Amino acid sequence: MTKSPLTPDLTVEFADVFALYPAEMHEHVTTALRHEGASVAEGTTSLQTLREMIEDFAKLHEETVAHQRRAQTLILGIQELIANGTINQSRFVTELSAEIELGEASALYRFIGLQDLSSPLDAAVSFLAWNHARALSELENEFDVNLDGFRDPEAADLFGTTESELSLVGWSVFKD
After folding, report:
1. How confident is the model at residue 92 (pLDDT cuts 50, 70, 90)?
2. Domain extents in the chain
3. CB 3.0 to 4.6 Å from 33: which of 37, 156, 160, 169, for a disulfide?
4. 3-state percent breakdown (helix, strand, coil) of the chain, nearest 5
C-alpha cells in the first residue's frame, strides 16, 4: 500500500507495538492501530486494551475465514447435487446455478453465510424456500394484498391453488 500524508506508516510510528507480535499478526495490529492508534499515542488506551483488541481482530478473522470455507464447501456440494441429479427440477437448477455463478455476491452465498447449515441439500432447500417466501412477500407489497392464507389447506381454493383449479389455467405449464 502506498503511504500518503493521510495514511501514516503505522509500522514506523508504532514499531514497539509491532515488535511484540509475529509477522502473521501484523495485519491485525494494523487494524487495531487504525482504530485506536491516536488514543494509544495519547496514552488513553492501554497496551493491554490494544492487545485484547488485536486478539479480537485475529479471532474474528479466523472465524470469518472458517465461515467462508464452510460456505464454499456447501456451494460445491450444491453444485454436486445438481450434477448428480439430486436437484433436477429445471427451475431450481437454473435458480441455484445462476446464484452460484454470481459467487460471493450472490444471495445464495450470503444466505448460507448467515445460516447454520451443515449439508448442501439443507442449504439448497432452505435457500429456495426462503427465496420463494421472499417472492410472496414482494407480491404482497407490490400489489397490496395479504397472502397469509395462501398455504392454508382449508383455504386452498381462495387463491386457486388446488390442483383442480390450477388445471383450469393449465396445470401442465407449472411442471418441468
Report:
1. very high
2. 10-145
3. 37
4. 75, 0, 25
